[in-house]
Amino acid sequence: MAPPRTAPTITWAMIVVWLVFASVPLWIEKVGLYQYLGVEILIFAMYALAYNLVLGHAGLPSFGHGAFVGVGAYAVGLAQFNVAANLWICLAVAVGAAAVAGALVALFISHRRGIYYALMTIAFGQIFWFVAIKAHSLTGGEDGLLKIARLPATFGMTTFDLTSNVALYYFVLVVFAAVSFLLWRIVHSPFGRVVKAIKQNETRARFVGYDVWRFKAAILVLSACLSGLAGALFSMAQTSAFPDVMSLHYSGYVVMMTLVGGGLVSFWGPVIGAAAFFLARDIIGAVTTGWMLWFGMSFVVLVLFKPEGIAGIYQSLAQRRAKTAAPVVAPTSQVR
Amino acid sequence: MALFEAKDLHLRFGDRVVLENVSLAFEAGQLSGIMGPNGAGKTTCFNVLTGRYKPDRGQVLWQGEDITGRSPQAIARLGIARSFQLMNLFDEFSVFENIAIALPQTRARSRNMVREAYADAALVDEAHAILKRVGLAERAGDEAKSLPYGARRALEIGVALACRPKLLFLDEPTAGLGSDGRARLAELILKLKGSVTIVIIEHDMEFLFSLADRISVIHWGQVIAKGTPAALKANPWVEASNLGRLN
Ligand SMILES: Nc1ncnc2c1ncn2[C@@H]1O[C@H](COP(=O)(O)OP(=O)(O)O)[C@@H](O)[C@H]1O
Ligand SMILES: [Mg+2]
C-alpha cells in the first residue's frame, strides 16, 4: 500500500527559519535597526506560533490571549522575587501559572465555538487585564512590575550571562527553536490531527468517538503555556512586566500578526506576520506616527482579498510557477 | 435478547411531539429498515439512539445495558457508528485521512502529541482496505471536498465503517443518487450484511424491500407497522398510505 504523506521530523523550512534568525545579530545593526528589535520579533514570533495553535489549527477564535502572556510575564518576575532567583525555576513557574490560567478559561469556554467562543475569550481577557491593573500590591498596577533581572542561564557547569541583548537574543532563539519544533510535532501527531478534524466538523468528530471538549480544552491549555513562556521572556527582555500586554489591544495584535503572516494556511505564517508587524512599526513608524493606520489598512486589505496572508500569496505564486512548469500535484491537507 | 433496543421513546421539541411511544429492536446480524415519509421523525429517532438528543422518556439498551442519555462519543466507543443524511465529512482532509481519523487505532493514540500520526503500517492498510470496500481506493489522496456527490456519499459510509462498528446506522444513504449509485450501494450493503448489524433509513421501497430482514414504518413520530418485507407488503396501512411513492 502507498504510505500516506508523512511530515518529516525536521524540514528545510524549519532549518532555514532557524538559520536566518541565527544570522540576525550579525547584520541587524548594519541595516540601521537595533539588537533589541530582534528579541522582540523572536518572542512575538513564538507567541504567534503558540496562538496559531488555537486560531489556525483548532479554528478557535481567541481574542484574549494576552491574558496568558501577561500571566507568564508577571509570574516570572514574582517567582524571581519570591521563590528563587533561578532562571529555570522562574520560567517553569511562568509556564505553570499560564497553564492554570489556561485551564481556568478552558473550563468555561470549551463547549463553545465561533463567535461565542470569541466573546468569552474577550470577556476573560478583560477580567485578567482588570485584575492585573487593580492588584497593585502584586503586579504594581499601571506602573508595572519593575526591576526583573535577566537571570543567567546555567547548563550544567557552564553559565551564560543574558544581560546583553545579543546574549538574550540567542537564548530566546534556542527556546524558539525548541518551541517551533515541538509545535511542528504536535500539529502532525495523532492529537494534532484530531484537533484539526474537530476544527472541520465537531459533530462528526463526536460521532466517531472523540471527546471534543477535552481536545478543545487541551489545545487551549497548551497554547496558554507557550504564550506564558513568551510572556516570561518578554518580561526578561523589558526587565519589567506591564498590564498592557494583557489589553484587548495587544490581544488584537497577535491576531493581526497571525492572519497577516498567513497562519491559516502555513505553519510559519505567524512568524512572518510577527516580523512584518515589528518591521512595519519601526520602518513605517520612522516616517509617520500613524504607522498602525497603515498596518491596519493593509490588514483589512489582506483579509478582504487574500485571507491566506503573506504565506498564502507566496504559495499561490509558487503554485502558478509550478503550473506553467509541470502539472500540479493534488492538494493535500498537510501543513507546510 | 436483541442487540439493540429502544423502549417507549418520547421526545418533544417545544410543544411539538416528534417521537411518541417508539419501540424498536434490532437483532444481531440482521439488516433492519426504517421507512416513513419526510418529517416523520426517522432522523430524530437515530439522533436519540446515537446520543445526539436525550429522550424525554424511554430507554435505549445496548446488549441489555441501559445507555440512555449517554454522549455520542460514549455511544460511538461501544461500537455503534452512524452515517448522516446531510453529509458530515472532514472536508479539508484527504479521503484517506477521513477514514484514518475515525479508526479505533487513531483514537487509542489520540493523546500522543509527539509521534507521527498514521505512521503505522497496519493502520494504513486498514484505511486502504475500507477505501477499497467503498470504492474509493483511487481517490485516497484527493481532498474530501473535491469529490463528486456519489463519492462523498460513499465516503460518508466509509467513515462510519472505519469505526469498526458492531452496529451501523445509515441515514438515507441513497439520497440524491442515481440508479447506478443505488445499485452499487445495494451491492456494498449486501456485502456488509451479516458481518455488521445494520439499521437503514430509506425512502426507496424497492431498495429496502430487497435488502432488509425486518422493516419498521414510522409516521407522525410513531411506529405504525413492523414486520418482514413480505408481511409489510400485504399490510393494508402501508399500501393505503402509499409510503413507497412518498419520495
Ligand atoms: N432540532 C430540532 N428542533 C425542532 N424540530 C426538529 C428538530 N429536528 C427535527 N425537528 C422536527 O422533527 C420532525 C421530524 O424530523 P426528522 O426526524 O428529520 O424527519 P425525517 O428524518 O423522518 O424526515 C420534523 O417536523 C422536524 O421539523
Ligand atoms: Mg431524515
List keywords for this structure.
heterodimer; A: 336 residues; mainly alpha; two-stranded antiparallel ribbon; 14 helices; 2 strands; B: alpha/beta; Rossmann fold; 2 domains; six-stranded mixed beta sheet; 10 helices; 24% strand; binds adenosine-5'-diphosphate; binds magnesium ion
Quick one: overall form of chain B? globular
Gyration radius of chain B, rounded: 18 Å
Count, helices of chain B: 10
Radius of gyration computed on alpha carbons of chain A? 20 Å
Order of helices and strands of chain A, N to C?
A: HHHHHHEEHHHHHHHH
Largest beta sheet of chain A, briefly?
Answer: 2 strands, antiparallel
Assign the structural class of chain B, choosing from mainly alpha, mainly beta, alpha/beta, alpha+beta, or little secondary structure.
Answer: alpha/beta
Number of strands of chain A: 2
Strand order of the largest sheet of chain A: 1-2
Distance between the termini of chain B: 34 Å
Strand content of chain A: under 5%
Ligands and ions found: adenosine-5'-diphosphate, magnesium ion
Percent helix range of chain B? 25-40%
Name the quaternary structure. heterodimer
Q: What would the CATH topology of the largest domain in chain B be?
A: Rossmann fold
Number of strands of chain B: 10
CATH structural class of the largest domain in chain B: Alpha Beta
Topology as H/E string of chain B? EEEHEEHEHHHHEHEHEEHH
Sheet with most strands of chain B: 6 strands, mixed
Mean of all residue-level pLDDT scores of chain A:
92
Number of helices of chain A: 14
Describe this structure in words.
The complex is a heterodimer of chains A (336) and B (247). Chain A is mainly α. Chain A has one domain. In chain A, 71% of the residues lie in helices and 2% in strands. Chain A has a two-stranded antiparallel ribbon. In chain A, helix 8 crosses helix 10. Chain A is globular, with a radius of gyration of 20 Å. In chain A, 48% of the residues are buried. Chain B has 247 residues and is an alpha/beta fold. In chain B, strand 9 (214-219) and strand 10 (222-227) form a beta hairpin. Helix content of chain B is 35%, strand content 24%. The mean pLDDT of chain B is 91. Chain B has helices at 42-49, 72-77, 95-102, 104-108, 121-133, 149-162, 179-192, 205-211, 229-233, 236-241, and strands at 4-13, 16-26, 31-35, 57-62, 65-66, 80-82, 167-171, 197-201, 214-219, 222-227. In chain B, strands 6-7-8-3-9-10 form a six-stranded mixed beta sheet, with helices on both faces. A four-stranded antiparallel beta sheet of chain B has the order 2-1-4-5, with helices on one face. Chain B starts with a strand and ends in a 6-residue tail after the last helix. Chain B has two domains: 1-79 and 165-247, P-loop containing nucleotide triphosphate hydrolases (Rossmann fold, 3-Layer(aba) Sandwich), CATH 3.40.50.300; 89-163, no CATH class. In chain B, helix 3 crosses helix 5 and helix 5 (121-133) packs across helix 6 (149-162). Chain A binds chain B through residues 1-7, 9, 185-186, 188-194, 196-197, 200-201, 203-212, 215, 330-333, and chain B through 50, 71-73, 76-77, 81-82, 84, 88-94, 96-97, 100-102, 104, 106-107, 109-119, 121, 124-125, 128, 140-143, 146, 159, 162-163.
